[in-house]
From TrEMBL:
Comp. bias intervals (Basic and acidic residues): 455-478
Pfam assignment, any one: AAA_lid_At3g28540
Highest taxon in the source lineage: Eukaryota
Protein name: AAA+ ATPase domain-containing protein
Keyword field contains ATP-binding: yes
Signal peptide positions (record): none
Region (Disordered): 310-330, 455-485
Entry keywords, A to Z: ATP-binding, Hydrolase, Magnesium, Nucleotide-binding
Catalytic activity: ATP + H2O = ADP + phosphate + H(+)
Length: 496
């Protein structure tokens, strides 16, 4: 068989050699025709099979194929020993170089004694307007070749093996990312998200919050991350919504970082004000990866989302519907109903786990439809610093568990509203000379000052209220006297 294929190969090589010599003398149309059929003939006679795995499925340039990513990761672990040309990337997490296979470089692999060959190829396509300035487009794919004889083994067990190994390596090497929705160019592609490596140090240990509340949140997150089968069973997308609300500086952003670190998820920071319309929002969300926290901070300020449902006119409804239509040049913005649709239904198809977090300083301003249970499953109030939270901050910043000044701090915190951000600022040593005691004294001073200002403010408000009431009484008396006069009374009668 090998001899026969060898002879056919030699014959084909001679024909190709002669063809190359005379190619310039053959008309263009005939030469294209010959090349096409020569390729078909070679494929027909070849004892080898080729399977291709495309980076993006179908027409869509959103949502990279998970199979392609797993193969890429699997091969990068092989490329370092089996290829002769590599692409090198510096891994922040492991502080080491990661080698991956270069374009058109062949990487052989052996499975159960059977040899296969991988190569990364690309087709360059005509430019098409897909919402960003696209010059031209490259469609990359992996090509796997193996002998026909091993069709079942390779198409079944081997591909499974590659997927499993690829995913395992991805989890091991995972460098988490913080994405923001600023389009950026990556090779031939415009990507809707740009990223930096996510290295926020916050954890639930360093988060200032009552331990019972923290534990409840951690249990909730853990249960969610392990509930793949449960979500599949009840037929719901594997997602969970959190609403974090509270005054500025109470740790909403810190909580998001702690959640992402706890789950080992990426973070997508979605700035809604820069999203043109519902279509763009959909594309952005489709492009988010599994195991991610999608954050919309200050949802009340993000867009005119609040109360829009109630007030929506017929005209507005029509605009929203047009927004979903083919017209990409529309200037309409993301709407509440658009956002609700994506939260409810978007990820049912993609299947991966996602957490969506809204933060707000003014929970009372939000449309109830946006935060109802089922959409935002857990509402977490981020509050002013209590004694338990203070102790976490004291441990973080001063490395102490107790101190004789703690009792005074505790009673002052009970009377005053100070955010964890302000507490942290006050106890942070400002120079090498500042010791623990002087840091705590700084905080006590700040708390006393805050309590004094609060008392002053309360006194001012009380005086203002009394003044208003006095004026109102005088005004009522004048009106009463006036109406009596109108009714022909000359004397005022007071009824007690
Ligand atoms: N609960 C907390 N635990 C630990 N540190 C906190 C906490 N709250 C605030 N901080 C500290 O204060 C800084 C600001 O807090 P953060 O940005 O998380 O507050 P926020 O509620 O998100 O504020 P904003 O509403 O203004 O965005 C943080 O960098 C952190 O150092």
């Amino acid at each position: 068989m090998a001899f026969l294929w060898g002879n056919i190969g030699a014959g084909m090589a001679s024909i190709m050699f002669v063809y190359t010599i005379f190619k310039d003398h053959i008309p263009q149309s005939l030469s294209t025709y010959l090349e096409k059929y020569a390729k078909k003939l070679v494929r027909f006679l070849s004892p080898y099979i080729e399977i291709t795995f495309h980076e993006f499925n179908g027409e869509s340039y959103y949502g990279r194929s998970e199979v392609f990513t797993a193969i890429q990761t699997y091969l990068s672990s092989k490329a370092s020993t089996r290829a002769s040309r590599f692409k090198a990337d510096f891994m922040m997490k492991s502080k080491s170089l990661m080698l991956s296979m270069d374009d058109y470089e062949e990487v052989p692999d052996v499975f159960n004694g059977v040899k296969v060959w991988w190569v990364l190829e690309a087709k360059v396509l005509q430019a098409r307007n897909r919402g960003y300035n696209q010059d031209s487009m490259e469609k990359r794919y992996f090509k796997l070749s193996f002998h026909k004889h091993y069709r079942e083994l390779i198409a079944g067990s081997y591909i499974d093996h590659v997927m499993k190994e690829g995913k395992a390596v991805t989890v091991k090497n995972r460098q988490r990312k913080l994405y923001s929705n600023n389009p950026c160019k990556d090779g031939y592609y415009w990507k809707a998200w740009s990223h930096v490596y996510f290295e926020h140090p916050a954890t639930f240990d360093t988060l200032a919050m009552e331990s019972k509340k923290k534990e409840e949140i951690m249990n909730d997150l853990k249960k969610f991350s392990e509930a793949k089968e449960y979500y599949a069973k009840i037929g719901k997308p594997w997602k969970r919504g959190y609403l974090l609300y509270g005054p500025p500086g109470t740790g909403k952003s810190t909580m998001i970082a702690a959640m992402a670190n706890f789950l080992n998820y990426d973070v997508y920071d979605l700035e809604l004000t820069t999203v043109k319309n519902n279509r763009e929002l959909r594309n952005l969300l489709i492009e988010t990866s599994s195991k991610s926290v999608i954050v919309i901070e200050d949802i009340d300020c993000s867009l005119d989302l609040t109360g829009q449902r109630k007030k929506k006119s017929k005209k507005k409804k029509d605009e929203e519907e047009n927004d979903e239509s083919e017209n990409e040049s529309t200037s309409s913005k993301v709407t509440l109903s658009g956002l609700l649709n994506f939260i409810d239904g978007l990820w049912s198809a993609s299947g991966g786990e996602r957490i969506i977090v809204f933060t707000t300083n003014h929970v009372e301003k939000l449309d109830p439809a946006l935060i109802r249970r089922g959409r935002m499953d857990k509402h977490i109030e981020m509050s002013y610093c209590g004694f338990e939270s203070f102790k976490v901050l004291a441990k973080n910043y001063l490395d102490i568990d107790s101190h004789e000044l703690f009792a005074e701090v505790g009673s002052l915190l009970a009377e005053t509203n100070m955010t964890p951000a302000d507490v942290a600022e006050n106890i942070m040593p400002k120079s090498d000379e500042e010791d623990t005691e002087s840091c705590l004294k700084n905080l006590i001073e700040a708390l006393i000052e805050k309590a004094r200002k609060k008392a002053e403010e309360e006194a001012r408000l009380k005086a203002e209220k009394e003044e208003k009431e006095k004026k109102k009484c005088a005004h009522d008396d004048t009106n009463a006297a006036g109406s009596m006069k109108e009714n022909g009374c000359s004397t005022l009668y007071y009824v007690s």
